[in-house]
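Let us practice reading a record.
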Amino acid sequence: MENFLQNESLTVAVNSLGGALSSIRDKDGTEYLWQGDKKYWSGQAPVLFPICGSLRGDRAVIGGDKETNMPRHGIVRKKEFLLEKADDEEVVYSISADEEMLARYPYDFKLSISYSLSGKSINVKYTVENNGSIVMPCFLGAHPGFNCPLTEDTVYEDYYLEFEQEEDCTAAVNLPDTGLVDRITRRPFLKGQKRLPLDYKYFEVDAITLDKLKSRRVRLATDKHQKGIEVDFSDFPYLILWSTANKSPFIALEPWSGLSTCTDEGDVFEEKANVSLIEPLGKKDFNLRISIL
């Protein structure tokens, strides 16, 4: 089931399946959000919780003496969410732990996602609540794919990513055979630049994991026209760039609060880098803004 938000600039749809965005259209009818195609990727904008990426062998020790067996990107992205609010100003979906989820992730959680519009911007707030009696470790990530090209008279290579600041950083190395990340062996990537022209060669092996960015905003744009997208990921330390090796017409700009298990890490969930530890009856917010240029 979809619910809609609309103002003078945007019409946005949010789906109860996964509680995720399913459409972003401007007043001209241009669709910005990838609409899914199994030839490339059937997803659109899944919500990643309580992990981003993969655990080593899909397993980890959690809660001291328990073991979790968790698939890539967590346990909520293919679940039906409950609609809590839908009016002209805001749509709110939520999901709470059930028996199946508790078997994989032994915490009494509630995840709420609020969507609202402000001019040409979509404001997304993810709220993770710990309704249990023990500290809850977790990660939260967004995985929106955006159409690229955005118009019929342009091609993928006409577009570029523009970072908020001039960047000079390497990228961690993804290991697709295991799903792990090698953050010790680095690959050259951004060299004193704000703009990165898009090229499918970047994705011949896997996604690009940017764990040392200074920027907290990134734009998808072109010099061929004025349409584009800006993602403000101020609450997220990591940005993942991804497109498929078979030249898919989209680019995913993914803010994550954590990474796949790294090769220099063990298999204790609570000891993963940048883990959020939420106290009993506590909560944590993660905010994201997607703007149409």
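A brief commentary: The helical segments are 99-104.
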